[in-house]
Amino acid sequence: MPYDDRELLARLIQCEAENQGEAGMKAVATVVMNRTRITYGEFARVSNGGSVRNIIFQDRQFVCAQTEINGVINEQNIYNMTPTEEIYAIADWALEGNKLQGVDEALFFYNPYSEICPQYFPPVRIGVIYNRIGDHCFYLPTANYNKT
């Protein structure tokens, strides 16, 4: 049986941000849900009216949604996660329409493995740095995003 939206979101939150604390997990959940609710650009087309599944499984968006990367098995993926009640509660919080202040309109996040967040994400400049929570940099859409 395929996972429902709650299960997919909880597993993605755990995989992408479990080590980032509650704020980091809520920030990732906020970005995913922002992508389902935006009314223009690439994510509006991909979500097709708000599909969490479509957003999570969009090609090359979340490493945790991939079981293989460049021909190598990716052990850290959503299928190998077992969310806790705390993570399910965060997924429910996001699915109910809540947003974490400080990333409330962000569409992108990225772990640069550095103390410095790049100004733009990615280099084609569809996102501009907005905030950092834990290891993740969060980006707001730029005018270039409108062209995606």
Describe this protein's structure:
The N and C termini lie far apart (33 Å). Strand 4 (120-121) and strand 5 form a beta hairpin. The protein is of the alpha+beta class and 148 residues long. The protein has helices at 5-17, 21-37, 41-47, 52-56, 85-95; strands at residues 68-69, 72-73, 108-110, 120-121, 127-133, 136-141. The chain has 5 helices and 6 strands, in the order H-H-H-H-E-E-H-E-E-E-E.
Write the layout of secondary structure elements.
Blueprint: H1 5-17, H2 21-37, H3 41-47, H4 52-56, E1 68-69, E2 72-73, H5 85-95, E3 108-110, E4 120-121, E5 127-133, E6 136-141
Antiparallel strand pairs: 1-2, 3-6, 4-5, 5-6
Which class best fits the helix and strand makeup? alpha+beta
Roughly what percent helix?
A: 25-40%
Give the DSSP E fraction (strand runs of 2 or more residues): 5-15%
Write the H/E string, N to C: HHHHEEHEEEE
Q: How many H/I helical runs?
A: 5
Low-confidence stretches: none
How do the strands of the widest beta sheet line up side by side? 3-6-5-4
Keywords:
single chain; 148 residues; alpha+beta; 4-stranded antiparallel beta sheet; 36% helix
Summarize the structure.
36% of the residues lie in helices and 15% in strands.
